[in-house]
Amino acid sequence: MEYLSALDPSGLLRSVTSMSSDLGRKVWTSAPPPPRPFRVCDHKRATRKGLTAATRRQLLDKAQETLKLSGVLTLVLEEDGTTVESEDFFQLLEDDTCLMVLELGQSWSPSRSGVLSYGLGREKPKHSKDIARITFDVYKQNPRDLFGSLNIKATFYGLYSMSCDIQGLGPKKILRELLRWASALLQGLGHMLLGISSTLRHAVEGTERWQRQGRLQPY
Fold it and tell me: For the chain, does the N or the C end have fewer beta carbons within 10 angstroms?
């Protein structure tokens, strides 16, 4: 009878329900997301900090402490002022996203120039596409080099690339090159003068020959 009572449908239903609820709690209580890097600033963009956080609430707490903020805080995207209100939207943000933390009464405003400017050392817009990327690399092969060497590399549409390497020279090499160019210039001038003198000599000899033959009478 005890075995038959254990096979009661209502008891089996309660057992299955209990197992499903335990399994659901184990699934929904999985490990929290790992911390990710973000860049935060105040509404004036005067202070910028790099923070890591796993959730939106955690990032707001760290930003409040780091930026010395108080009161009710609002998290928005720095590029366009989109409000980050939900945790789901926060988890969809990419790493190193620039965010602005606003206090009560503050509002987002674009940069002073009216457009987003990306200077040296700053990231480019997320949805932009590279057309051409040019890099300049200045280096010295020898500490005694007077001028450093310059390497220029250009990449177009991420597929085609070309580079140019301009080698720098040391003081001795520069002096040697100057002397070599001066020697070549003087040598060229010497050949030119020899050619002119040879032409003049032939002209004088021809004139004298014509005079002896009586074709040209002297004054």
Answer: C
Q: What is the amino acid identity at position 144?
A: R
The CATH architecture assigned to 36-103 reads: Roll (3.10)
- pTM to 2 decimal places: 0.41
Of 96, 119, 104, give the one whose Cα is nearest residue 49.
96
Please tell me the distance from the alpha carbon of residue 170 to that of residue 163, in angstroms, as a whole number: 23
**φ and ψ of 125, to 5 deg:** -60, 150
pLDDT of 125 over the 50 cut: yes
Q: Residue 142 and residue 31: Cα distance in Å, rounded? A: 54
Q: Report whether 36 contacts 52 (CB < 8 A).
A: yes
Select from 91, 74, 106 the least CA-distant residue to 35: 91
CB 134 within 8 A of CB 152: yes
Q: Which letter does DSSP use for residue 34 in this model?
A: P
Give residue 218's identity as a one-letter amino acid code: P
